[in-house]
Amino acid sequence: MTKPSAIAESEGDTNRTDRRAAWQAGSLDATTRRLLARDSDAFLHQSVSTPCLNAIVRAEGIWIEDAAGRRYMDFHGNNVHHVGYGHPRLKRAVAEQMDALPFAPRRYACEPAVALAEKLGAITPGNLGKVLFTTGGSDAVEVAVKVARAATGRHKTLSFWDAFHGAGTGSAAMSGEMLFRSGPAGPMVAGALHVAPFGGYRCPYGTDGAEASGRACARMIDYVLARDPDVAALVAEPTRAVPYIPPPGFWAEVRRICDRHGVLLIFDEIPTGLGKTGRMFSCEHDGVVPDILVIGKGLGGGILPIAAVIADPRLDVGGDWAFGHYTHEKNPVTTRAALETIRIIEEEDLVANAARVGVLALDRLAAMKERCPAIGDIRGRGCLIGIELVRDRDTREPDGDLAEAVLYRALDAGLSFKTTMGNVLTLTPPLTVTPAEMATALDIVETAIGGAEGARRT
Ligand SMILES: Cc1ncc(COP(=O)(O)O)c(C=O)c1O
């Protein structure tokens, strides 16, 4: 099935571009090529993964190392490496737990699972406190929606275009990315409604500025909810992954709108939870407590897969049904890993570090923007940073070609990151990132932008 060209254009670092092929031709050794060929033969091909870019043999702290021995600071990490790769304390805890109790069939309680559920209740805002675990974020989002359906007696969801909530059929339906929900992915789950998101620099409602965009988006949410009484929940990332920071008051207004219409608010903090944005949960920046919070990714410490649904106890009304009946629902090893990860984040003061380094990065980026006309906008919170590249500051025409060139130049200089929406360099280092590492990364980005622009002129 052929893809509409908009899909290819919406992702800068898809795995089939000429620039990627050129980078590989100049960068990969024979051993790596052989492994990539076996990988390509063994796995079903899909966009943004197989065939792969390169092969790695080591991941430690902020670093990944490829098969040829080159090291890259990983400013992507799929947002799992909050505590850095292979934290020694975490590895010890996982090993101890494997010796003590490697698995618990679902009908048995075990100490690490209960302790993790209690800990999540203690660190999440407001009254959130009743928990279900899954192995992945996509499943957790779907569980959250089933809980909301049980509690409201309604079945539809409202979410944002351009959002990502997971690759499962239900989560992809709530997502707003063509790559995951169109063509062979369809038909999707019925009742997944969408509105355009807020976005100060590129507002789909045609407004100018973050506040106006937020107001327009909130008005549209109100408009839709007023016309559809079957919506159980609004599902959204409180800080959009592009990234887009919500304007002040936006979520408070949306919270009021949801309450007015009897709609629950589900925040998907799978990448942003546990400190990524410089607060333990990104919704704390906005002082808004959802009815259900979903986290994942970094929860397993970058070693094990685990996600969590943390709900207001008043939603615990579906006890006769099975919402999250997953084999690893109360796995002692994954839950112990999560518990230890949270303790490391707390005891090493990593949330404050993410906030501090994020401020330094935005200061530095503001200066870089003065020097570099290709930077149209900079946005960020903590360790979630976006640098939007444009062909022309006045027209704001996206420069995906430049973003892709910068990505491969940065790899050559030892920095790995991804692009979103084609033209946004998206930097998501671990919470352990030091000011010096951030400065080095931004030096690499600035040099790469200058180099790529120079190459284009010649
Ligand atoms: C906001 C958001 N929600 C959900 C998911 C899905 O998580 P998983 O890949 O663990 O299913 C992701 C993954 O990238 C995400 O970024």
Task: Report on this structure.
This protein has 458 residues and is an alpha/beta fold. The chain has two domains: 26-83 and 350-457, Aspartate Aminotransferase, domain 1 (Alpha-Beta Complex); 88-347, 3-Layer(aba) Sandwich (Aspartate Aminotransferase, domain 2). Helices cover 40% and strands 16% of the residues. The chain is built from 14 helices and 16 strands. It has helices at 5-10, 18-27, 30-42, 88-100, 111-123, 137-152, 169-174, 178-181, 210-227, 250-261, 332-347, 350-371, 400-412, 435-457, and strands at 56-60, 63-66, 71-74, 130-134, 156-160, 192-195, 231-236, 264-268, 292-295, 307-311, 375-381, 384-392, 397-398, 415-416, 418-420, 424-427. The strands form three sheets. A seven-stranded mixed β-sheet has the order 4-10-9-8-7-5-6, sandwiched between helices. Strands 11, 12, 13, 15 and 16 form a five-stranded antiparallel β-sheet that branches. Strands 1-2-3-14 form a four-stranded mixed β-sheet. The chain is globular and about 65 Å long. The two termini are 38 Å apart. The relative contact order is 0.15. Residues 5-12 have low confidence and may be disordered. The chain binds pyridoxal-5'-phosphate.
